[in-house]
Amino acid sequence: MCGLVAPLLILLVGGTEAFRICAFNAHRLTLAKVTKDSVMDTLVQILARCDIMVLQEVVDSSQNTVPFLLQKLKRSDKTKILNFYQYNDTDDIFAREPFVAQFTLPSKVLPSVVLVPLHTTPKDVEKELNALYHVFLDVSQRWQNENVILLGDFNADCASLSKKRLNSLLLRTNAGFHWVIPDGEDTTVRASTNCTYDRIVMHGQGCQRLLKAAATFDFPKRFQLTEEEALRISDHYPVEVELSQATQGIPPQCLAILLLSLLQSQLD
Ligand SMILES: *[C@@H]1O[C@H](CO)[C@@H](O)[C@H](O)[C@H]1NC(C)=O
Ligand SMILES: *[C@@H]1O[C@H](CO)[C@@H](O)[C@H](O)[C@H]1NC(C)=O
To answer: Of 61, 123, 130, 234, which is least surrounded by CB within 10 A?
Structure first.
């Protein structure tokens, strides 16, 4: 009996949109840049795809750029920030200390996930990415949460990081880290470049079980922009993961029906 009910429930639950987490190096993002007509509409459409967006390379001492963008966006209420801190970089390894945050997820399987963003400086990629492993240890211990997504412009390719050094990173040699934007995936806009600079690395069973898709978002193609037009927005593509929102396992309604039919068969 439940065999009939279950597909229906999956349709109801599984038909909803996935939960999308993104990182985007928006190339020297200033208020002057975002208020340009040629930038604003496309940028807002790129941001609006995501339930959580890690927006990198905002260069704005006035601190008006992000509030301006938020005003243009329909706010998503699918998540809340539970807690956050900036990593205490006592050895001064990072050019930009990771700002770590824990978010709620609309999933019963996994109620929260930790995001660890990083934008490395090209000359210290290996050192910073190895230090990122220690940020992972710090945050997963502090919040007792092993479900962590590390993401952003890692500069983890081409002249900034050789294949050999990439493969000897702590985040590669330690088990449990899943690099979901694969090596060889071009995250750069220019036709003349092909580098996997931008990355998403997932840790934790719960988190990986919800993974539906991971990809770059080729916004020039989607919005039919020439390379020159696209470069007004950024020289990077956003990278994105889609997490399932559906509860997995046996839905509770189905479980109730199953119990009822069991009870009935015993009464019969
Ligand atoms: C960072 O760590 C150092 C050394 O452990 C400590 O002296 C300092 O107070 C810490 N800073 C913050 C903001 O926690
Ligand atoms: C980039 O290079 C990889 C091989 O490293 C190749 O598989 C891929 O097709 C290239 N992408 C583009 C857009 O040229």
So the answer is: 61
